[in-house]
UniProtKB/TrEMBL annotation:
Its main location: membrane. This is Peptidoglycan-associated lipoprotein. It comes from the Bacteria. It is found in: Cell outer membrane. One of its GO terms (biological process) is cell division. Part of the Tol-Pal system, which plays a role in outer membrane invagination during cell division and is important for maintaining outer membrane integrity. Residues 23-45 are annotated as: Disordered.
Length: 178
């Protein structure tokens, strides 16, 4: 075959392949006069749409991703002098519980904490009640007690050292540690 003919054929074929493979327009479309008009889609040569479709997730996959995001939160806050799990923390604990049920070899340490108000003895007991409340919630979901350990630090490991209501609220917590 003649190299000049081959070279000329390649010069014609390569630009045509490139035009069909990519788009240089963004959020617009070329009309018959060559001007651009916005449509919200990407179009390549000849008006062929080249934008990709977004991934469609199944409801189960959407739930898995939601729980994965919720598990990033591992602190459960409590009201002053209380050890009941509040309803606004239910989703977080449920995400951790579902994970633990699905992974029976994973263990979690549940830490109980209190703010500095009250005696050290009282705060140790309060921290323990808080950790046990989280463990009881998880057990109700089917998490095995052998997967959980509990420790109370009382007021000994504050998250916030400020001596105001905001700081005290941050210190009244249970923490799930994997």
């Amino acid at each position: 075959m003649d190299l000049n003919k081959l070279f000329k054929a390649m010069l014609v074929a390569v630009p045509l392949m490139a035009l069909g493979a990519c788009s240089s327009t963004s959020d617009s479309e070329t009309d018959a006069n060559g001007s651009m008009s916005g449509t919200g889609s990407e179009y390549g040569a000849g008006g062929i749409e080249t934008g990709g479709a977004g991934a469609v997730l199944s409801p189960a996959e959407q739930q898995r991703l939601k729980e994965q995001e919720l598990r990033r939160e591992n602190i459960i806050y409590f009201d002053f002098d209380r050890s009941e799990v509040q309803s606004e923390n239910a989703e977080i604990i449920q995400a951790h519980g579902n994970y633990l049920v699905e992974h029976p070899n994973v263990r979690v340490l549940i830490e109980g904490h209190a703010d500095e108000r009250g005696t050290p003895e009282y705060n140790i007991a309060l921290g323990e009640r808080r950790a046990k409340a989280i463990a009881k919630y998880l057990q109700g979901m089917g998490v095995q007690s052998s997967q959980m350990s509990i420790v109370s630090y009382g007021e000994e490991k504050p998250l916030d050292y400020s001596r105001n209501d905001t700081g005290f609220a941050k210190n009244r917590r249970g923490v799930l540690v994997y």
